[in-house]
Amino acid sequence: MATEAELVLAGLDPEQRLIAEHLRGPISVLAGAGTGKTRAITHRIAYGVRTGVYAPERVLAVTFTRKAAGELQGRLRALGADGVRAQTFHGAALSQLGHFWPDVIGGSAPQILPGKVAALSQTVEAAGMRLGGEALRDLAAEIEWRKTSMLSIDDYAARIDQRPIPTGLTPQQLIDLHTRYAGLLEERRQIDFEDVLVLLTGMLESEPRVALQVRERYRFFTVDEYQDVSPLQHALLKVWLGDRDDVCVVGDASQTIYSFAGASSSYLLRFGVEHPNARQVRLERNYRSVEPIVRMANRLMRDRPGALTLTAMRATQDPAPEVGAPLTSATPLAKRQARPGAKPPTQTGPAAPTFEWFASEGDEAQAVAGSIAAAIQTGTPASEIAVLYRTNAQSARFEDALRKRGVGVRVHGAQRFFERADVRQAVMLIRGEAKVAHDRPLFQIVSDALRAGGWSTRPPEGAAERDKWEALSSLLSLVDEMPPGAGIREFSEELLARQRTQHEPTVDAVTLSAVHAAKGLEWSLVHVAGLSEGQFPIVHAVDEASIDEERRLAYVAFTRARDMLRLSGVAGGTRANRQPSRFVGESGLI
Ligand SMILES: Nc1ncnc2c1ncn2[C@@H]1O[C@H](COP(=O)(O)OP(=O)(O)OP(=O)(O)O)[C@@H](O)[C@H]1O
């Protein structure tokens, strides 16, 4: 009989298992897209907790976005590793800084500046200069880059000739604005987002007593997306660790997409130099995508530094889903994805990725919306479809074209699910129900509570109403994910836990997202739009390093697709006269 702990290892492939069983000492995992790195690290932590090697409250799992942290926390909870903390670097640093500030510095920690651009606009005005919105944003990005690269203003001034200068500024004015901005923050007793990490790292380096307390609290570290770590985050991790080395880092050099903000994959690739006793494991079996997509992704990254070669694991013809079977590395994807309402996969073999070229942006949006409407008609759930693009400004035309066809849309990066007024009200109503004794089935109690919040069984007309209906319906669908016998109290607790960790339910709508925000996600059908030179790669990517970063971004986009990948681009008429993106050619599609 397998023990409780061993059950956590079931369903891992041999390399994932190696990772999960390596509980002590440094380990780096080079994990290609869709190779189950999140699965490997969550199971590793759960295995550590279940075997008693880790005290859950001493484990810290760090990632980059709140969404990813919420996802990680949710997966850990599902594996029974409840007390483990999954946070962003920023979130973890902010709570530690707030905790120690009164004792070390006195008083409460400074307020966080709500937005850099507004403060910079004042700084620029006070300096008697004028800058447009775009130049202000570039200036903000440059300040962020300097801080995450851990450069003082003097260090920065010494290398100003290698930096991009926002339009309308001389190098000297740029340096002067860095100084004035720092002065403004000091005057207002505010700190910015990057300062949180700068100050905490400084505090831990200079106050051994504080460092000791933090190290006492956290013993076992896991860092996801380590290819995107900045020098500042790396320095913080180092002080968290002190002279200990219980750290697991996971990443994929081919998915480094934040170099512009100071990230560097060299920390991942040189982990063995920093920790000579580290174990290194590669995950190269891709479980996500059908073979033609994997082949194309490999081709795009061929011979690039640090690139892994993925092997497609999905069978050409996945057999029909079988509910309740234990997961193994040989379990075809179709089994794992059996969702209520989803049709079994067709038996015709995987479709090759396609590329279509359009005269205008309007034509492209119409064609993408048409293809999506047809996919929904033939049984692909809307929540299994995404349209990805390079910049947020591209979303509106797809949103419009899809809504006109009556397709529900969710624009990624818009308001967070649990912060929506309608969702907050519904959660409150459900919590109210949890305070009363009931003998009705859970589904009925929740649907009645949602009705009181304006929900009905039939989807309403109108985009905004429909949007609300979809959000509330997704809360109701969470009832199906509860264990048998769960009542309204457990359900209400589950909602609270999800609210705390921003663990969103799946909304039945097509996702529209910029590629950066699609990192770590997957869909059955993915459209990547706007693949034209000047759009993707973006117009200002001119040198080799920034083209490389754009290529990695394209790689992230392409590898989000499980079953179907459709690429498109726009010539843009005589005015733009664009050519198809080089990444389409490099992937072997044209
Ligand atoms: N051993 C396995 N057997 C079967 N399926 C697996 C296995 N490991 C991972 N998968 C599946 O592969 C897909 C990718 O896994 P996961 O989300 O953990 O990937 P990832 O490596 O974090 O991806 P990325 O870096 O591209 O975001 C998921 O659908 C997951 O269920």
TrEMBL record:
ATP binds at residues 31-38. Residues 291-563 form the UvrD-like helicase C-terminal domain. InterPro entries: DExx_box_DNA_helicase_dom_sf, DNA_helicase_UvrD-like_C, DNA_helicase_UvrD/REP, P-loop_NTPase, UvrD-like_ATP-bd. Its EC number is 5.6.2.4. The keyword ATP-binding applies. CDD domains: DEXQc_UvrD (cd17932). GO terms for cellular component: cytosol; DNA helicase complex. It is an enzyme of class 5 (isomerase). It holds the Pfam family UvrD-helicase. The keyword ATP-binding applies. GO terms for molecular function: 3'-5' DNA helicase activity; ATP binding; ATP hydrolysis activity; DNA binding. One of its GO terms (biological process) is recombinational repair. Belongs to the helicase family. UvrD subfamily. This is DNA 3'-5' helicase. It comes from Leucobacter luti.
